[in-house]
Every structure is written in C-alpha cells, then in structure tokens.
C-alpha cells in the first residue's frame, strides 16, 4: 500500500518538501494508518507533523479514551499532538442541524484554528477509495449534478493552505492489511456500524453487494470521478466566460441578472453550469439546500412563455422574471435601478421590464385608454422625459383639488412596494408630470385646440424568442 500512496502523492502533487502537516486522527484504522504513513515519510520529505484529534462528546467515556489513545501513540512515535472536546449536542440544537453535520462543522473549526496557530500548510485526512465510492453512490441516489459525481476532491483550499487525501487511491481492505502489517491497534467506534446513518447503510449493505458483482468497482468509480472532474473544470471555465458576457453583477455578486434571449443562445450544458455558478456566488459556495428540483424550476422559468413571474427559494433568495430579464436577488437587498431618458417625437423607449413607450405626432386626437395619452403639443416643453419617481414628486389630475404625492397614489392604487421604484412616469422639460403610466393623467394634457397632438403609447410586447 505504501508504494501506491507514494505514487499517488507524487502524481497529484500533494506535498512539498519541508511542509508542516496537520493530520486529522480519530483513533480508527484509517486515520491511524495515515498517521503511521506520514511517520514513515517524515524524514525523506522533511516534514513537521502534528496530530489533531477531536472528542465530539457523543460516546461518553469511549470518545475521551480515543483522544487519550491517540495522544499516547503520538508520544511513542514522537509526533506533536493537539486535541479538544466539543459539545455537538448543544451546537446541533442551537443551529437545528443533524448530528453528523454539527460534528463536522465543529471538527473543521478546530482544524482551521490549528492550521492558523501552527502555520500548517497541509491538513491530511484519511478518506479512502471506499469512502469515495460511497459518496458517489449516495449522491447518485439522492440526486445530484455531474459536478457532484466528481466525488471527494483529492485536494482543495482550506485555511490558507490545502486539505489533501492521500488514501483516496486505496481501499479499506488495504488499510486494514497495512494496520496488521505494522502492528497498529486502532480504536473501534461502534457508531460506525449503526446503519441508521445513511453512509453506514451504504457502507455495510449496498457497497458489498456491488463489489460482489464487480470487484473493481472502486477502480471504475475513481476513473469516472477523475474524467468528470476534468470535464467539469473545462465546462466551469466556459460557464464563467458565459456569465462574464451576459450577466450583470451588483452588490458583490448578491444581485445577478441576465437577458433571457442572450442566455438561451448558449448550449444547455453551459446554461446548467452557469446556473449553479450563480448559486455559488450568491451563497459563497454553500448551496447545499438546492437540488435538481430547483434546477428544473429554473429551466421551466427560463423556457415558459410567460412575461412575469417570481420564485421564492431557500435562504430568502428570489428568482424574478420581468419579460426578457431574469434576476436573482435576496429579498432584503434588492432594489430596482432608477432610470431617466429623453423621449422625442418618433422615439421608442424600452423599459427595464421589457415594456415600451413610444411618441408620435398626430393631427387628430384619437380615443384614449389606460395605455395611451394624448396631449396638445403647445402645452408641453419637448423633448419629454421618462423616468422613475423621486422624493417629493407630486401631480394633479381632473377632479382633484390641489396635487397629490406619487407615493400616495401608489398606495391608493395598491401598487406592490417592489414595483414602485421602477414604475415609469413622464414629464416635460419643465418637470411637469404628465402621466404616471397606466394610473393617472395630468390636467395639463386635457385641453388644447392647436390641431397637433402628441400621442404617447405604452405597450407590453410579447418576448422576443
């Protein structure tokens, strides 16, 4: 086994000469074999070794004895030791987590603290080929993306250094044989046999059946994970380029929007990865609450023939569609951008939600409706202005004694709060509000006999496809 692990480390460039390595050690066979292996390569690599052990407070005296055992072995092998006890049950209750997740969080917090304190560049973990197979099968059964089938990474960034897993290329059986060969007597955690935990169920019930059918299962799954990893790295790069071209990022990538028609010009494989990349940006890489169901919802949202819609997703995330535009935003931070543009005769202005305003000159006053405004050309100063509301905006209309705040009109008309800051209104060059589009028309436009009329039309065209 040692020869295989040596080659694995060289092939994947997991170590450098003279590094300080923190080794996660529980006292079980995997981590004890890992600790011993590093003891054998300490001098050739010039490594400084530190064993780190965590008592999760879940098995009473037994877990404390595990900690003591690791400490004693480290003393015999002349390896520095750091250990701690954490209160998983209290943390689990406080943050509404399951036992395994709470234990993992507290364990990695300790590792990070020690990495920083000891200035270690490497955290070595004892995951092996069987763990990789279990992880891939569990994700496949639960539902995952192609990226999820890459399994446990051989190395990744952590606490200013890297996590490495030198045993991913060997099996549990080989590790047990290694322990026997070198007279290592690991501790046994009885909870690892409890099949109420999903991983244990796969380990003791599912994996043996599959290995009986194909003894090279681990080897084949490892090859698959590496092929998928290489494919995913390339496709991820292309997805990043996609978003650079089509997406608009605001508030440190916490508001992200893009054009539906432009996004749809790319292959579905890149669209899918761009979607997950967006989630990574929004959740800082912690998007575990999302599943393939959310992906299906996204693509349904993207392809359905709808003008407007909204999805409420985990963590306060909203996915909002306004005609040709999709926006991801957190409810507390989202505010539509304001706008202002001149609108001359013959002009058409496309609003952010895809609707349009157009102006033309006519010699007859056509019948008005809620989407049309006509105004005697002599009563306004051209060009017109289309803009969003400003503090203190007021207007008047027929039958109103005095003027009224735009804010109060929105309230009276029951316009949703999230729509008010992007609602269009039209003024002339002197600032007179002529039309709160679709809601109120000013008395300025109600008279006149010059024979020339401005006709302003508001329309919601079908989305271009």
UniProtKB/TrEMBL annotation:
| InterPro entries found in the cross-reference section | Lysidine-tRNA-synth_C, Rossmann-like_a/b/a_fold, TilS/TtcA_N, tRNA_Ile_lys_synt, tRNA_Ile_lys_synt_N, tRNA_Ile_lys_synt_subst-bd
Record-annotated Lysidine-tRNA(Ile) synthetase C-terminal domain positions: 384-456
Q: Which domain of life is it from?
A: Bacteria
Q: Identify the main location.
A: cytoplasm
Can the keyword tRNA processing be found in this entry's annotation? yes
Protein EC: 6.3.4.19
Where would you find this protein in the cell?
Cytoplasm
Q: Where does ATP bind?
A: 26-31
Q: Which family would the database say this protein is a member of?
A: Belongs to the tRNA(Ile)-lysidine synthase family.
Task: Tell me which NCBIfam families the record gives.
Answer: lysidine_TilS_C, lysidine_TilS_N
> What role does this protein play?
Ligates lysine onto the cytidine present at position 34 of the AUA codon-specific tRNA(Ile) that contains the anticodon CAU, in an ATP-dependent manner. Cytidine is converted to lysidine, thus changing the amino acid specificity of the tRNA from methionine to isoleucine.
| Free-text domain note | The N-terminal region contains the highly conserved SGGXDS motif, predicted to be a P-loop motif involved in ATP binding.
Name the UniProt record assigns to this protein: tRNA(Ile)-lysidine synthase
């Amino acid at each position: 086994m040692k020869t295989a692990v040596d080659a694995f480390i060289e092939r994947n460039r997991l170590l450098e000469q003279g590094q300080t390595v923190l080794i996660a050690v529980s006292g079980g066979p995997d981590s004890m074999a890992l600790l011993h292996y590093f003891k054998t390569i300490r001098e050739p690599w010039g490594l400084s070794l530190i064993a780190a052990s965590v008592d999760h407070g879940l098995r009473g005296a037994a877990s404390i004895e595990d900690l003591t055992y690791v400490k004693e072995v480290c003393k015999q092998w002349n390896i520095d030791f750091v250990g701690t006890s954490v209160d998983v049950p209290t943390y689990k209750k406080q943050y509404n987590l399951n036992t395994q997740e709470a234990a993992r969080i507290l364990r990695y917090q300790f590792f990070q603290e020690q990495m920083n304190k000891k200035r270690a560049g490497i955290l070595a973990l004892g995951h092996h080929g069987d763990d990789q197979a279990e992880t891939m099968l569990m994700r496949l059964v639960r539902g995952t993306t192609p990226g999820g089938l890459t399994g446990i990474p051989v190395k990744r960034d952590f606490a200013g250094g890297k996590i490495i897993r030198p045993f991913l290329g060997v099996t549990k059986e080989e590790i047990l044989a290694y322990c026997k060969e070198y007279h290592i007597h690991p501790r046994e955690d009885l909870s690892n046999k409890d099949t109420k935990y999903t991983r244990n169920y796969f380990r003791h019930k599912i994996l043996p059946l599959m290995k009986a059918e194909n003894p090279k299962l681990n080897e084949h799954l490892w090859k698959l994970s590496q092929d998928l990893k290489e494919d995913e790295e390339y496709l991820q790069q292309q997805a990043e380029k996609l978003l650079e071209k089509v997406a608009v990022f605001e508030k440190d990538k916490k508001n992200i929007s893009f054009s539906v028609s432009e996004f749809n010009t790319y292959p579905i494989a890149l669209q899918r990865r761009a979607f997950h990349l967006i989630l990574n940006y929004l959740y800082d890489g912690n998007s575990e609450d999302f599943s393939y169901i959310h992906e299906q919802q996204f693509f349904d949202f993207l392809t359905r023939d709808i003008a407007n819609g909204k999805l409420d997703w985990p963590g306060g995330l909203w996915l909002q569609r306004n005609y040709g535009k999709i926006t991801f935003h957190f409810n507390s931070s989202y505010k539509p951008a304001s706008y202002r543009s001149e609108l001359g005769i013959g002009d058409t202005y496309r609003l952010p939600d895809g609707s349009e305003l157009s102006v033309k000159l006519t010699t007859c006053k056509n019948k008005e409706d809620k989407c049309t405004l006509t105004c005697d050309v002599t009563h306004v100063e051209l060009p017109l202005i289309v803009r969003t509301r400003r503090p203190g905006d007021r207007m008047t209309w027929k039958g109103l004694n005095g003027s009224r705040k735009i804010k109060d009109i929105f309230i009276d008309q029951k316009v949703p709060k999230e729509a008010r800051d992007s609602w269009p209104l039209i003024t002339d060059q002197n600032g007179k509000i002529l039309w709160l589009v679709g809601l109120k028309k000013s008395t300025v436009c109600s008279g006149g006999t010059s024979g020339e009329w401005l006709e302003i039309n508001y329309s919601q065209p079908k989305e271009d496809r």
